[in-house]
Each structure stands twice: as C-alpha cells, then as structure tokens.
C-alpha cells in the first residue's frame, strides 16, 4: 500500500512559502507623491492638481521587492498588454485613471450615504407635449371616437335607443374626420381599420334597434363590400335577421345561406344557429319539408331542445305520423347536461361539506340548470299534447304511446303529468266518467301525483254539488301532500259549502302559509270574512289580492262592495270608477255607480251612469224603472214612455208597466192616446181596478158615453173585492192557529237564501253577482286543477 506514497525530501533547495510577500511595484502607494510619472499622469488626466491629502501610513515593510521567481520585474496583463503606470524601455507611460467612475474618496469625507443621489434634488421636468402637432390631434380624436362608441353601447343597454343612435352617428362623423386627417399626415396603410369597423358596426346595430331597417342594411352593405375588413361576411346573418323582421323571407334565407357559406366549418355552433334561423324562416313561408331537412340536419349534428320541438311542429304541419314519432323520440333523447339533484344533498355531517352544499344549492348555475330542465319539460309536455291525438287512431292510444316513450327516457317523472293531462283532455271532451277513472288510477301512486289527482277529483265533484265526495277527495289530497295549497283551498271550499266559515278560513290560512301567492285562497278567505261580518279583515285580504292582481275586475268589485257595507260610499265610488276603467261595458257596475250617486243626492251623475248601463244592457228592469221615474220627476213624461214600453215588453204579465205608459200619455196631455192605452189594458186585464178607475175618470172628463159601462164594471169589481176580504177575515177568525203556521212557513220560504248566494239586497255588479252565485266555480281553481 505504501508504494504509491511519495515523501518530500528533507533537503529541498526551494522554499515552499517563498514569494507570498512579493508584489508588483505598481501597487506600491508609499512613494506616489514622489513619483513624477504618476503626478504627470494625474495632471494630464484631470486637468488640475489633485488635492493634497494626508499621507496614510503604510503597513507594508520597506524592503526590496522580490517575487517568487527572483528579481524585481513588471507584470503583464492577461492580453499581453503592459500594466498601466509601468516603465517600459525607460519611458514612463502616463496613467489613465486612478479611481472608479462616480466614486472618490474625497467626496465621501464628511458626507452622508446617498447611493440614489436624492440629495441632488428632483429631476428636471419632462419636455411638454406639443398639443398642436398633427399626431397629437389624431390621437385625441381617436380617443374621442372610442368614447362615443362606448357611450352609445351603454345607452343601448340602458334602453335609451334614441341617445344610443345619436352617439353612434356622432362617432361616425368624427371617425370620417379622423380618416381624412390621418390620410394627410401618414400613408393610407396606417389607417385604423378596427376603429372604422367598430364605428360602422355599432351604427348599423343602433339603426336596427331603432327599427330604421333601410339605414341599417345600407350600413351593413358598406361593411360587407369593403374587402379590407376581415370576417365581414358574418354580418350577413344580421342582414338576414333584418329581412326576417321585415317579413321578406326569401331575402332572409338568401343572406343566411351566404353567411353560412362564408363561415368555416370549425365554427360549428355558429353554423348550427344559422341553420336554425333558416329552418324557422322556412316554417314562416310554409315550406315545411325544407324546414324538416334543416332541423333534421341540426338534430344529427348538435341536437338541442328548440330544434327538436320545431322539428315536431313541422312534422305535425304536414301530418306525417311516423316522422312525428321519430321527432318526439329525438326530442326526448336530447341531453340536458345538468347535474343530478343528489349532488345538492349533503352525504355526511361534515360542516364544511354542508356549508359548500348550501352555497351551491341556489347559486346562478343551479338556477340555470332549473330553467333548462323546466324548459325541456315544457317542450316535451307541449309536444306530447300536440301529437297524441293525431299519431294514433284515438287520442287515448296516442297518449299511451307518449307515456311509454317518456317512461323509457330520463324524464320518467313527466309520465304521470301526461296521464293527468289525459284526464283533463277527457274533461274538455265532456267525458267526465273517463276523466274520473283516469284520475282514480293515481290513488296508489306516489304522494305528489296522488295529491294532484285527488285535487282534480275533489274539484270535479264540487262542481257537480256532490260535496261529500268532494270533501273525501280533498282529505285524500291534503293527506298525500299537506303542503299542496290547491288541495287545502278545495278542502276549505267543501267546508264553506257546509256553512262552517271559521273552519274554512283556517284551511285558507294554511294554504296561504304554504304559498303566499295562492290567489284563490286569498280571494276565498276574503269572501269568508264577509260571511263572518269581519269587514276589516275582508278588506285587508282583498287589498292584498289587488296588489297581486292589479286589473282583476272581481277583486275591484269586492273591495267596492266591502266599502259599501262599511257605509263609506265615497271609497266605494272610487273603486267602482277603477272597475269601469277595466271593464267599461259592465252594465251592473255602471248601475251600481248610479245607485251610489243617487243615494248621495247627485241626480245628474246618477242619471249619466244609469243611462250608460241601459245603453249596454237595456233589459235591466231596475235601471229602466229608475230612468222612467227620473223623466217623470223632471216633467219629461213623453221621454219616460219608451222606457216603460220596454219594461212592458220584458214583463208582459206585469200590468203596472202598461199603466205607467198610459199615465205618461195622460200627464203629457195626450188624452186620446192614454184612453186607447187604458182600453187595451182593460182588454188584457179586465179585473184590474186601477185601470177601470182611470177609464171612468178619463171618460168623464172627455164626456164619453162609455163612462156608465166602466162605472158599472168598477162597482161590481169593488163589491167582489169587498166580499173576498170578508171571507178572508172570517177565515182568520176561525183558524187563527193554522193560519199563523202557514204564514210562518211561507215566511221562511220567502226569506230562504242559498248558502252561497247573494246576501246583499242592493243591485250587484255582474262580476260580484258571478262571484256570489256561481259557488266559486272559477275562483277556487288551484294551480294543479287546469294546467295551461
């Protein structure tokens, strides 16, 4: 192992540590002041003598300089260049520098550390721009044009279309000035084409938004024909849209196809949208076969709900059953691309996970998913209701086929809704037995569907006045889904029909707690409070309903009626005025206004509204009677005649109207016409005593011979009347007890009121009369009763 180890000899002539204290004399600073070459170099380099400084004692030892190689010599640089300040060939070469740039030892003495030179003060100001230069003017003008385009777009988004158009026009004018100035200063290649394109495109868009289609088309033509604009051909889609709005369908299809040719195939989504526009245009022109080709191409390339629904409509238009079936299957197969509902159910008790689920449960993405799903269900349900009656021999078989297809798809829950729609179709065809049988099939289904079917069954039985069955199915609906407001409303209706108003109000309140926007429950609880004479609560309910249904004639009428019951005629008149602004031809509302003004003593206003009521409905006896009496009071008896004649036509068995006609003739001085009228009345009603009295008086005044005949008849009738009264009086004395029984029975019959009938003695408006007397046939429908 030791054969490769070499030991140093003990007697070595060279010293291993020699030369470490030797250095180049150029680095010796002790004798610089006496070095004439150095001093000359300093003077020639700086142009002045260096300041005299104190000599710094050196730590080096004064001894001859020697190197490790022996004698004193100068060192050369790495490039072979002699060191600065050395002596070569006996000539002293002057030094070129003795300090680093920007640093001097003298400057550091007595000064603070300032590496950034902040003590020198602020930098000199920048050179001011020359605003009068052409380049600067062009730059400012270009900035102004961009600002005008942005303001135009903002005004359009805010709905101020006129301001947006003015800004767009101003931007166009300034952009043309900018182009002219730029052409004078620079070459045409430096023109900002992007700015020109944006200005023209915005101007065309604003013209189109303001329905100035000719100007918009001209502006688009300027863009399209300019070859310097890249991808300008796409704007032909916008031109096609304008032609579509103008119903110039042939040109719209032409421009859509030109745009389709200029859009590359990589832009698949854009091409699909243009194809869809082409298909819709074909539908508007009645070219259903071409529309089917367009939509089938879309469904094969990129299926979507709108294209599938339009394909079904086109197939329905031509009556092709097989194509309708295939199109419906394609619509069912369109992927929704949304997450399952299980994603929004927290699988664990982890608080962080629960917080995350709560955060995304109702975010914008979740809302978009709900909207997409609702739209898909709407299209499928509408398509099924459309094609079911025509794809098979009967609509029932067609519905069954649609139900089977839906059950085999991702929309399984829609199958039950289709079955309920099938029952409603039976109702529209007046086939109530089939409707009831179809709805009864859901009694063993899940709770939601069972509740909807039971609600409809309860409503059907309620309309048929079978309140026991209606109550039974209302209970089933409520038990299946306690949070179904329609079921609770129907249950309240059945209780209301039995006269238990307090309990009915409780059901209506519960329906409102589950769905505060349930207008049926809110309306019915107002009617219930009226029955209970709790007018303040009834008014509050109807006012809440008015806030939801602003133009509902029934609600306005009920509010006016409540104010009338509260003896506030001014408020009642005010709400009735709102009512006739909604339904100006409602004769009952007009007559009610006339009645209120009459009670306030304003005869002229009362006459105006009674007359308007008579004009719209000239068969209202109460209105006719008031108008006739008004003309008699104002001494215009001849005008009252036409109203009483109409009343006698409406009620020909009532003698009083004909007597009023004869009386008007007599008061107006037309005695002959009055006499003829009385004779005609006596012929029709020979036992009328009043008619005979007037005949006797008239004949006496005129001096006719018939007076004796009429007087004899009058005496005989009066005698018969007197005998009849005596018999009645003797009968009362002999059978007082039985008579009082009969009178009590008759009185009870006369005062009988239908539990759901009108309870107000004054004339009612048509809307209120319909509300009070129709047993809530319309207003008590729930949301699930008759879906649109």
TrEMBL record:
Pfam families the UniProt entry points to: ANAPC3, TPR_12, TPR_6, TPR_8
What InterPro entries does this protein map onto?
TPR-like_helical_dom_sf, TPR_rpt
Can you name a GO cellular component term? non-motile cilium
Compositional bias (Acidic residues): 773-788
Q: Where are the TPR repeats?
A: 233-266, 272-305, 485-518, 519-552, 587-620, 621-654
Compartment(s)? Cell projection, Cilium, Flagellum; Cytoplasm, Cytoskeleton, Cilium basal body; Cytoplasm, Cytoskeleton, Microtubule organizing center, Centrosome, Centriole
Which UniProt keyword terms apply here? Cell projection, Cilium, Cilium biogenesis/degradation, Cytoplasm, Cytoskeleton, Flagellum, Repeat, TPR repeat
Report what the protein is called: Intraflagellar transport protein 88 homolog
State the organism of origin.
Cricetulus griseus
């Amino acid at each position: 192992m030791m054969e490769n180890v070499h030991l140093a000899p003990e007697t070595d002539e060279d010293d291993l540590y020699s030369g470490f204290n030797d250095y180049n004399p150029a680095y010796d600073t002790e004798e610089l002041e006496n070095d004439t070459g150095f001093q000359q170099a300093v003077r020639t380099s700086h142009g002045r003598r260096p300041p005299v400084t104190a000599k710094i004692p050196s730590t080096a030892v004064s001894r001859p300089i020697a190197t490790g190689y022996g004698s004193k010599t100068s060192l050369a640089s790495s490039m072979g260049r002699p060191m600065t300040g050395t002596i070569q060939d006996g000539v002293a070469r002057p030094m070129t520098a003795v300090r680093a740039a920007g640093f001097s030892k003298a400057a550091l003495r007595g000064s603070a550390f300032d590496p950034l030179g902040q003590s020198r003060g602020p930098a000199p100001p920048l050179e001011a721009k020359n605003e009068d230069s052409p380049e600067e003017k062009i730059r400012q003008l270009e900035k102004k044009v961009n600002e005008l385009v942005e303001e135009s777009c903002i005004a359009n988004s805010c709905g101020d279309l006129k301001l947006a158009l003015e800004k767009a026009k101003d931007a166009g004018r300034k952009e043309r000035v900018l182009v002219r100035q730029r052409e004078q200063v620079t070459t045409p290649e430096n023109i900002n084409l992007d700015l020109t394109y944006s200005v023209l495109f915005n101007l065309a868009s604003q013209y189109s938004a303001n329905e100035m289609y000719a100007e918009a088309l001209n502006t688009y033509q300027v863009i399209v024909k300019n070859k310097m604009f890249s991808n300008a051909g796409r704007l032909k889609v916008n031109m096609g849209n304008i032609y579509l709005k103008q119903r110039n369908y042939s040109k719209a299809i032409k421009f859509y196809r030109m745009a389709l040719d200029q859009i590359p195939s990589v832009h698949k989504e854009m091409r699909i949208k243009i194809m869809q526009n082409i298909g819709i245009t074909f539908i508007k022109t009645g070219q259903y076969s071409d529309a089917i080709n367009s939509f089938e191409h879309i469904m094969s390339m990129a299926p979507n709900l709108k294209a599938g629904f339009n394909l079904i409509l086109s197939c329905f238009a031509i009556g092709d059953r097989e194509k309708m079936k295939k199109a419906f299957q394609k619509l069912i197969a369109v992927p929704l691309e949304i997450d399952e509902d299980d994603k929004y159910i927290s699988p664990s008790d982890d608080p962080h996970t629960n917080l995350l689920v709560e955060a995304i449960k109702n975010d914008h993405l979740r809302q978009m998913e709900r909207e997409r799903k609702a739209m898909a269900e709407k299209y499928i349900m509408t398509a099924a209701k459309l094609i079911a009656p025509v794809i098979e021999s009967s609509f029932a078989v067609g519905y069954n086929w649609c139900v089977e297809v839906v059950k085999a798809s991702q929309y399984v829950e829609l199958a039950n809704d289709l079955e309920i729609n099938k029952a409603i179709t039976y109702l529209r065809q007046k086939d109530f037995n089939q409707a009831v049988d179809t709805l009864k099939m859901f009694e063993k289904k899940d709770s939601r569907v069972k509740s909807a079917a039971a609600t409809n069954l309860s409503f059907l039985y309620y309309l048929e006045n079978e309140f026991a069955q209606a109550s039974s199915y209302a209970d089933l609906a409520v038990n299946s889904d306690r949070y179904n407001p329609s079921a609770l409303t129907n249950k309240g209706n059945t209780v209301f029909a039995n006269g238990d108003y307090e309990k009915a109000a409780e059901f209506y309140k519960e329906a409102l707690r589950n769905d505060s926007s349930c207008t049926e429950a809110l309306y019915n609880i107002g009617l219930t409070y009226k029955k209970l004479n709790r007018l303040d609560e009834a008014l509050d309910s109807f006012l809440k309903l008015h806030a939801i249904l602003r133009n509902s004639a029934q609600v306005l009428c009920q509010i006016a009626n409540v104010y009338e019951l509260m003896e506030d005629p001014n408020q009642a008149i005010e709400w009735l005025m709102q009512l006739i602004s909604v339904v100006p031809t409602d004769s009952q509302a007009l007559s009610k206004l006339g009645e209120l003004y009459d009670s306030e003593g304003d005869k002229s206003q009362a006459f105006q509204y009674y007359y308007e009521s008579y004009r719209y409905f000239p068969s209202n006896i109460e209105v006719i009677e008031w108008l006739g009496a008004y003309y008699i009071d104002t001494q215009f008896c001849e005008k009252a005649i036409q109203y009483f004649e109409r009343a006698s036509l409406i009620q020909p068995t009532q003698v009083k109207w004909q007597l009023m006609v004869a009386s008007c003739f007599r008061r107006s001085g037309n005695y002959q016409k009055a006499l003829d009228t009385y004779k005609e009345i006596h012929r029709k009603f020979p036992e009328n005593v009043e008619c005979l009295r007037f005949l006797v008086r008239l004949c006496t005044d005129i001096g006719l011979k018939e007076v004796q005949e009429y007087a004899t008849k009058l005496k005989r009738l009066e005698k018969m009347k007197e005998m009849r009264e005596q018999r009645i009086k003797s009968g009362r004395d002999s059978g007082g007890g039985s008579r009082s029984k009969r009178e009590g029975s008759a009185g009870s019959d006369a005062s009988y009121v239908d539990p759901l009938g009108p309870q107000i003695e004054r004339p009612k408006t048509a809307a209120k009369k319909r509300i009070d007397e129709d047993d809530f046939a319309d207003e008590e429908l729930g949301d699930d009763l008759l879906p649109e």
